[in-house]
TrEMBL record:
Gene3D superfamilies: 3.20.20.220. It is an enzyme of class 1 (oxidoreductase). Residues 44-298 form the Proline dehydrogenase domain. Its EC number is 1.5.5.2. GO terms for molecular function: oxidoreductase activity. This is proline dehydrogenase. Keywords: FAD, Flavoprotein, Nucleotide-binding, Oxidoreductase, Proline metabolism. It comes from the Bacteria. It catalyses: L-proline + a quinone = (S)-1-pyrroline-5-carboxylate + a quinol + H(+). Pathway: Amino-acid degradation; L-proline degradation into L-glutamate; L-glutamate from L-proline: step 1/2. It holds the Pfam family Pro_dh. Its cofactor is FAD.
């Protein structure tokens, strides 16, 4: 049943009609459970609260699969604005983005142009930019662009997904760049040809790539709410004398607040991924696909409104 629901919500996450209806009819339908607010002002308030509780943030202006150049321009300018606001308000925050929001599906020239403008702002305001990893079809291009940009800008990170067979070799491939990488299980609908179909394999591969990257001496972000992965990381870093400055736990806004607080109390670095904006539909459907219990949260949110 869980598998069927996962497929169902992943199918919805890609539905352009539902996505545009959701944007048009406002910030409702339980979006606030996983999304910090419709605009930067709301998001900044949330960041301040998290910072005061000892947690850093990565801020994501929601958006993906943009097909119009004007839209990509808008998203680029919003991300630059976000970087400036982080600096101006002295917030402990980085930014995350999806390159399909900056024009990846329109042309490589455009996305490189937009990314360079964002990364210039990142360097100027000392804000790290992480390129989220999207679906498999865009993985190779995302990594190639990451490599190009990483030769030009230091404050740049990306994400690798442990459900993909290719990820172990991608960890080796990116090693020369001393990259800041967030490791996650992966949130998209992928075929068995490219991704492990069984959760146990995805979990084991996540442990494997986290350990590899830590052993290479690079900064490692563990993007997971899974107790087993968190325990594994604690134990591995302890046994291998890996300093706490070399890694951090990252969790999504709206998920496992108590666990986050516990980790902070234990002296671990914790960063919360805070999405904001009106283009929340696909992001929220992927959260529902991950955990059927999230459906209940969203329904509760609906009733409250
Ligand atoms: P999973 O969903 O497999 O859950 C494992 C176990 O954790 C559950 O069985 C339960 O025990 C526990 N658990 C999970 N949620 C819980 C809750 N709310 N309450 C209590 N227990 C809970 N994906 C992607 O493809 N590209 C990307 O760029 C990113 N970026 C990203 C950033 C960050 C900061 C995070 C945390 C995640 C992503 N993801 C992502 C999403 C990621 O790929 C994945 O889909 C989700 O994190 C879900 O996987 P988990 O590792 O959290 O555990």
């Amino acid at each position: 049943m869980e598998k069927v629901m996962r497929q169902f919500f992943l199918f919805l996450s890609n539905n352009q009609l539902l996505k545009s209806l959701a944007m048009k009819y406002g910030f409702k339908f339980g979006a606030s459970r996983f999304v910090a607010g419709p605009d930067l002002a709301h998001a900044a308030e949330n960041i301040r609260t998290l910072n005061n509780r000892g947690m850093a943030v990565t801020l994501d202006h929601l958006g993906e699969y943009v097909t119009e150049e004007s839209e990509a321009e808008e998203r680029t300018l919003e991300t630059i604005k976000t970087i400036k606001v982080i600096d101006k308000l002295n917030l402990d925050s980085q930014v995350s983005l999806k390159m399909t929001s900056m024009g990846l599906d329109i042309s490589e020239k455009l996305v490189l142009h937009n990314m360079r403008r964002i990364l210039e702002a990142g360097e100027k305001h000392q804000v790290l930019v992480t390129i989220d990893m999207e679906d498999y079809a865009r993985c190779e291009q995302t990594l190639t662009i990451f490599e190009t940009l990483k030769r030009e800008y230091d404050l740049l990170g990306t994400v690798l997904q442990s459900y993909l067979y290719r990820t172990v070799s991608d960890v080796e491939r990116l090693d020369p760049y001393n990259p800041n990488i967030r490791f996650v299980k992966g949130a998209y609908k992928e075929s068995e040809e490219v991704a492990y179909p069984n959760k146990t394999d995805v979990d084991e591969n996540l442990k494997k790539v986290i350990a590899m990257h830590l052993d290479h001496g690079h900064f490692t972000a563990i993007g997971s709410h899974d107790d087993a992965i968190i325990e594994f990381t604690k134990q591995y870093t302890d046994e291998h004398n890996i300093p706490r400055e070399q890694f951090e736990f990252q969790m999504l806004y709206g998920m496992r607040a108590e666990l986050r607080e516990e980790l902070v109390k234990e002296g671990y670095n914790v960063r919360v991924y805070v999405p904001y904006g009106r283009d929340w539909f696909g992001y929220n459907m992927r959260r529902l696909a991950e955990r059927p219990a999230n459906v209940a949260f969203v329904l509760k949110g609906l009733v409250k409104k």
